Amino acid sequence: STVTRSKLRIGLIPADGIGREVIPAAQTAIEALGSDIPKPEFTHLLAGFEYFTRAGEALPEETVEALRESDCALFGSVSSPSKKVTGYSSPIVALRKILDLYANIRPVLAVADVPGGKPRVDLVVHVTIIHKSNVLSVTDGLFRETVRAVPAGAAGRYDDITIAEQLVDSAVYRLFREPQIYDIMVAPNLYGDILSDAAAALVGSLGLVPSINAGDDFVMGEPVHGSAPDIAGQGIANPIASIRSAALMLRHLGYLKGADRIDSAVDEVVREGIFLTPDLGGSSKTQEVTDEIVKRI
Ligand code: ATP
Ligand code: MG
């Protein structure tokens, strides 16, 4: 980014479940960057279902106000009640609307091949629109036309991008059989959510996959996983999705060196395979994995 900042104001919203265990890990990773980024200034903010049960609201106005005063934010995860609760609606969905974060970007990367492994070829820029417009002709038809109109209205700016399209059911099938054929999938919320959980399985764990919610004026990192009530409170959640979300957020803001340092440290730890949480077959705690990553940063 071209903006020069003397400090970087980061809102932290751990929210529910393992969000409270992995967002502090991402904070430590950012702090370890030292002078590669402007001095981070963290603000701890409330939101979520647990907060709702205490306070009667899921997203207090103070949180929204504080985010408006911030440069960026990290969001953990929210628990969804198993049945409809009067007065409750998801704070992350609300924040995406309020802050106009229209794109949720979810890069799913296998950790770089170890030396001697097959080189991964990734040369073609290839965007695939995922839809079901043969059945949902109005809504998905609109989505498809809207995506197609982007290069058409861009006066040749995207000439190097080939747009393909595919029905969502066949996309799931091909994603499992030959994931390498996809570079970028563009999908509405529901298909994107399902496809990214599926893609997470291909790279080993939901605990590895980061995202950013991005708009023109704000960016919010958020792990793709949910609040994982089955493992919450045990100190064994994989912190990597959140740590990588911090890197993605910094990259989006233009702090490439800081982002690279975080990503390389994560890659090293995963490749070494010694300090891994149980979802990756290891027996390390969230804190141990975080410490190893921070040491390498
Ligand atoms: P939500 O409704 O919020 O999406 P969910 O329970 O459907 O919640 P997740 O919370 O994403 O979905 O969890 C899916 C599975 O993946 C669970 O078994 C959970 O323990 C596991 N999981 C998710 N995130 C992590 C993580 N960071 N580390 C380890 N396991 C994880
Ligand atoms: Mg989920």
UniProtKB/TrEMBL annotation:
Gene Ontology cellular component list: mitochondrion
Keywords, sorted A to Z: Magnesium
Biological process, per Gene Ontology: isocitrate metabolic process; lysine biosynthetic process; tricarboxylic acid cycle
TM annotation in the entry: none
Domain Isopropylmalate dehydrogenase-like: 9-293
Any matching Pfam family: Iso_dh
SUPFAM superfamilies in alphabetical order: Isocitrate/Isopropylmalate dehydrogenase-like (SSF53659)
Record GO terms (molecular function): homoisocitrate dehydrogenase activity; isocitrate dehydrogenase (NAD+) activity; magnesium ion binding; NAD binding
Entry's family note: Belongs to the isocitrate and isopropylmalate dehydrogenases family.
Name recorded for this polypeptide: Isopropylmalate dehydrogenase-like domain-containing protein
Lineage: Eukaryota, Fungi, Dikarya, Basidiomycota, Agaricomycotina
